[in-house]
Amino acid sequence: MYQYHCLNPIAEVGLDLFTEDYQKTEELNDAQAVLVRSAAMHDLELPEGLEAIARAGAGVNNIPLEKCADKGIVVFNTPGANANGVKELVFAGMLLASRDIVGGIDWVLENKDNENVKKDAEKAKKAFAGNELAGKKLGVIGLGAIGVRVANAATHLGMEVYGYDPFISVNAAWNLSRNVKHINSVEEIYSACDFITIHVPLLDDTKKMLNKEAFAQMKDGVVVLNFARDLLVDEEAILTAIEEGKVKKYVTDFPNTITAGKKGCIVTPHLGASTQESEDNCAVMAVKEIKDYLENGNIRNS
Ligand code: MLT
Asked: How far apart are CA 209 and CA 233, in angstroms?
């Protein structure tokens, strides 16, 4: 039986698992494999003898990939394992941007001791009126495990869905509903869509992909959703676009001092994959990857 060191607590998966504080790297000295969730590993000494790192999640920007390559350490991620959790929160984001749910809840809290609350609500609710998602155009940039799920689910809500991914895989294409229009130019998404959600990995090429030039091509009143990584969006530029009325709402799952508490920004604390189901799925997939590699030399999702 291998001992698996975890840098963050991970669900039980039927193997001997124990956790370590991620700062105490000396404790990892005889580890053959490390499982990590979101903790950044860039400043850590990677122990000699370490053979594999499994990132229990999709993005690997918290892993020092070059250092691992130099040392021959195989890095795995768990594509798709938390995609449903993220997908569901994207729809929560779209609803929060379209309906004043938070304003309505706050109003009820303020009126919790008002004995006429039921009657007064009928007048107050006019101030919280919103819009529906059905009939609106949604652009999905990036058709990996999450983007495909978002695109397909949106068709069931009656949205007209455009999907864009320059590197769409045959698998992803097959997984797309026939009701999703797969288009070849991201500019078409910018000019056509009422909602735009980005689901690409953070790479040099994708950094600040949604920038001033992109916002200028978008429809007035567009809602932009970012459940992928904050650096994909030029957030200074999106604040300006909000001021100018170009962007109605920016929904992001990555809080920072640029967007937190700012006009037009709806910000959650990286909750996309924070569900019991997603955490369990990632942990199980990550452990299976490591086990298969250490025992059989098989490499999947590296
Ligand atoms: C991911 O990369 O899988 C998501 O951002 C969720 C996470 O990091 O926990």
From this structure: 6
